[in-house]
Design brief:
By secondary structure, the chain is of the alpha/beta class. 39% of the residues lie in helices and 13% in strands.
């Protein structure tokens, strides 16, 4: 039997915002393999995610792959990846009604502590967090504020998460695994992937290698998946009508001449988190039908 069995493992999945995101598919696949799932959700979309988890109309989206059954995370925790601790949260955010009603520590450190203490440790950590309010701007038109915000949320948050989670992931039975999501725009010029986002993905990629080196002695593996273009709700909202063109362009030029599916990204994530990848760390795995190897 091939050893992808996460029974008894705790998986902390960040960045779920709806039911067609990579994070959603990854969380479902990890649960199908036996993992206990904890979701970390931005405070502004907690209600949206909770509705996807409970509405009858969304039941088909909750069906687990391979095994059947229904996606049911053990816990949904709020987390704003802008803040390492609650001391970093400005007063206007603390008093925002969507934040104030949470009555919880929604910083990275607070969220990780809540998950690690309640579930007795963390075996798998998924980083699926990216944001730039200026993403449609070219690099030359990106403001310093927008650039730094994108870098902090989209890249530094991986470091912050693993720093907070290290004590809960260190020397777990069979080792622990962290997987983040990156994109080809971190190493190639992709039009309209600006606003500091391309720089953030480039930073994320070298950060993952550094983190793999820092944490390997604790038997924590750190990897990335570079997924091909995918028309999630978030991507479609950024450039209405344009994401579909990007998918078609890549599909026509890829060695496997088609678009990727979110399930393929989830399956690759399960592999990286499993004993099958026990010697794989500091690596970026491309799940893009081979598009990254093409020169034209």
């Amino acid at each position: 039997m091939i050893p992808i069995d996460f029974s008894g493992k705790v998986a902390l999945v960040t960045g779920v915002g709806d039911s067609d995101s990579f994070a959603w598919y990854i969380a479902k696949t990890l649960q199908a393999a036996g993992a206990t799932i904890v979701l970390a959700v931005h405070p502004r979309v907690m209600g949206i995610v909770e509705s996807f988890l409970t509405r009858d109309a969304d039941r088909p989206d909750r069906e687990l792959p391979y095994t059947g059954g229904e996606f049911k995370p053990a816990k949904v925790l709020p987390c704003d990846a802008s803040y390492d601790t609650m001391d970093d949260v400005p007063e206007d955010v603390k008093t925002d009604r969507r934040y104030a009603k949470l009555n919880a520590d929604y910083s990275i450190g607070g969220m990780v502590d809540a998950a690690g203490k309640e579930f007795g440790g963390i075996d798998i950590l998924i980083h699926s967090i990216a944001f730039s309010r200026e993403i449609t701007k070219s690099a030359k038109d990106t403001s310093r504020k927008g650039y730094m915000e994108a870098l902090g949320i989209s890249a530094y948050s991986y470091t912050s998460l693993l720093r907070a989670a290290e004590k809960y992931m260190a020397d777990r039975p069979g080792g622990a695994s962290a997987v983040g999501l990156t994109y080809l725009g971190g190493s190639r010029v992709v039009p309209y992937y600006g606003g500091g986002m391309s720089t953030a993905k480039a930073a994320l990629q070298i950060d993952a290698a550094q983190l793999a080196s820092n944490l390997g002695m604790k038997n924590i593996r750190v990897n990335l998946i570079s997924a091909g273009p995918y028309a999630s709700r978030a991507a479609r909202s950024i450039r209405p009508g344009e994401m579909e063109k990007s998918i078609e362009y890549a599909a026509l030029r890829s060695p496997l001449p088609r678009a990727i599916t979110p399930q393929e990204v989830a399956d690759a994530t399960a592999y990286l988190c499993s004993p099958l990848a026990s010697a794989v760390t500091g690596h970026t795995l491309y799940v893009d039908c081979g598009y990254n190897v093409m020169g034209v």
